[in-house]
Amino acid sequence: AQLVESGGGLVQTGGSLKLSCAASGFTLAEYAIGWFRQAPGKEREGVACFTNADGGTYYADSVKGRFTISRDRAKNTLYLEMHNLTPEDTAVYYCATDVYLLISHDGIVQDMGAKPGGYRGQGTQVTVSS
To answer: Is 102:94 a contact under the CB 8 Å cutoff?
Structure first.
């Protein structure tokens, strides 16, 4: 079983990309799954995820309104559509299962993580030039 990302590349500021995460050996829709990114010298950031089987979603504030997470059950594939990209979006993007949200007592999402032992792809590089 594995996850394989694709769709990364070099794009200018303001451009768009659509990332794909193809699952094999398991049914993607049965898992809490999302997208993460990590830039050199920075901590891993949870970008977007499905919060429940009914399709609820979470987006990091840094991407809200610009990125859209979706999934195709027939193709067993997760997507991340990204618009209005900026150099700050430059990172390796990867998908992972067993995603969880850390929520404060007042209902604010503090972090998005992935439990150890889940599936994780190798990542795809997104580079946004200024």
So the answer is: no
Structure confidence at residue 53 (pLDDT):
66
Q: Which residue has tokens 């604010």?
A: 108
Residue 19 CB burial class (10 angstroms; 0-12, 13-18, ≥19): buried
Q: Both tokens of residue 11?
A: 């794009």
Name beta bridge partners: 29.
none
Q: Are 47 and 13 in contact (CB under 8 A)?
A: no
Residue 22 identity: A
CA 67, CA 65: separation in Å to the nearest integer?
6
The mean-pLDDT minimum among 18-27, 52-61, 74-83 falls in 52-61
In the beta sheet, which residues pair with residue 85?
none
Q: Where are the beta strands (DSSP E) in 13-103?
A: 17-24, 33-38, 45-50, 57-59, 67-72, 77-82, 91-97, 99-103
C-alpha span between 57 and 129 (Å, rounded): 29
User: Is 34:99 a contact under the CB 8 Å cutoff?
Assistant: yes
